[in-house]
Amino acid sequence: MPYFVYILECSDSTLYTGITTDVQKRLHEHNNTQKGAKYTKIRRPVKLLHVEELEDRSSASKREYAIKKLKREEKLALINT
After folding, report:
1. Which of 57, 80, 81 shows the shortest CA–CA distance to 9?
2. In 3D, which of 50, 60, 49, 63 has the Cα closest to residue 2?
3. Three-state secondary structure of 10-76
4. Which of 19, 20, 23, 80 has its CA 20 to 30 A from that of 55?
């Protein structure tokens, strides 16, 4: 089952990175339910900016960690490629 790493832009212009198996469902959760991350709940609405597909949870978690270590400018460059 593929996993996806995604980057959201929050209403305060901050960036949030996460992983999921269903991007649209997760985006809905971030914007509309209590299942969204605590970070995004107070920064709604969020907007999907970037998605990468990976083959498994382990690969997705490693990629998420790598993206989270990037500086904001580097994340924006990734989004714009």
Report:
1. 80
2. 60
3. CCCCCEEEEEECCHHHHHHHHHHCCCCCHHHHCCCCCEEEEEEEECCHHHHHHHHHHHHHCCHHHHH
4. 80
20, 6, 10: which is closest to 47 by C-alpha? 10
Among 46, 33, 32, which Cα is nearest to 18's?
46
> Would you call the peptide bond into 45 cis, given omega within 30 degrees of 0 as the criterion?
yes
- Quick: pLDDT tens for 3-57: 999 999 999 999 999 999 999 999 999 999 999 899 999 999 999 999 999 999 9
Query: Whole-angstrom Cα distance, residue 76 to residue 50?
Result: 10
Rounded Cα distance between 40 and 54, Å, is: 23
pTM of the model: 0.95
Q: Which residues pair with 17 in a beta bridge?
A: 7
